[in-house]
Amino acid sequence: MEIFDAEKEVNNIVEFIRKYYKENNLNGVIMGISGGKDSAVVSAIFTKALGKENVIGVTIPCHSNVEDFNDAKLISDYYGFRLINLDITSVFDTFKNEVNKLGDFSKEELKNSDINIKPRLRMTTLYYLAALYSAVEGKRYLVAGTSNKSELFVGYFTKGGDSVSDISTIADFTVEEVIKIGEYLKVPEKVLYKTPSDGLSSQNDEEKLGVKYSDISLYMEDKSKLPKDVQEKIEKLHKSNQHKFNIPTYKR
Fold first, then answer.
1. 121 vs 10, 83, 223, 248, CA distance in Å?
2. Whose CB among 15, 18, 105, 158 lies 3.0–4.6 Å from 119's, allowing a Cys bridge?
3. DSSP bridge partners of 122
4. What is the predicted pLDDT for the residue at 12?
């Protein structure tokens, strides 16, 4: 098995970003900073590629854990990029109040809708701010995606939410590889080794998925090394979420 070269990969990603930005006359990037490793690593990469003055991080709390904001600020302070806080809790609450007028729904009936509306509202916020600061500063800002290969393989993202972006830099790297990139970029350990969680429920990522990220990585490398029941869980997640990638389109 080939040894993962984090330095080489970072240099390749930086070259990819700079080339794309130059070819398309682009200037800056805006991204959500969740307080987790993925957004931390992506912000570190863009700071290296474009300079900290061209990176804007955004925290978008919505009935959120204050510790996530503190971790996001730790990252922005460490790399020196601007951090904007735009609280959408009241927006979410207003939306929910309108939904409540439609009927008397149970918590269980509302659970999935409530979880997924948050990343969709957050992505709306990022695109709004990208357009706003492009106009205000005379720069062309893109919205950066922060999903990694392991999440994408099992469809662990919200369609129309964190699946949306203008440029993606870590989508071809597993969770373990993202951590190695983060170690090379000296992402603060408190964030880099934090238990992955989407902050949308009381469970962490692996509890919600029912499988470990390390097993997902191993499945993509050589699934025969995994027990049959784990293989089946991962296959079920992968297959059942294919609708998130492909929109059936009728053609005449």
1. 31, 18, 36, 25
2. 158
3. none
4. 98
Q: CA–CA separation, 77 vs 83, rounded Å?
A: 9
- Helix residue spans in the chain (DSSP H): 6-23, 37-50, 66-79, 89-100, 107-137, 149-153, 175-184, 189-192, 205-209, 213-222, 228-240
Q: How far apart are CA 58 and CA 127, in angstroms?
A: 11
**What is the pLDDT averaged over residues 105-119?**
94
Domain count, the chain: 1
The band of 198, judged by pLDDT with boundaries at 50, 70 and 90, is low
3 contact partners, CB below 8 Å, separation of at least 6: none
Mean pLDDT (the chain) is 94
Q: What is the pLDDT of residues 79-99, one digit of tens each?
A: 999 999 999 999 999 999 999
- Provide the whole-model pTM: 0.93
**What is the domain range of residue 64?**
6-197
Strand order in the sheet with 82-85: 82-85, 55-59, 28-32, 141-145, 167-168
pLDDT mean over 164-173: 97
Interatomic CA distance for residues 193 and 182, integer angstroms: 10
Q: pLDDT, tens digit, for every residue of 3-15?
A: 999 999 999 999 9
Residue 117, CB-side half-sphere exposure with 13 Å CA sphere: 16
Nearest to 20 by CA among 156, 165, 161: 165
Q: What is the CATH number of the domain that holds 145?
A: 3.40.50.620
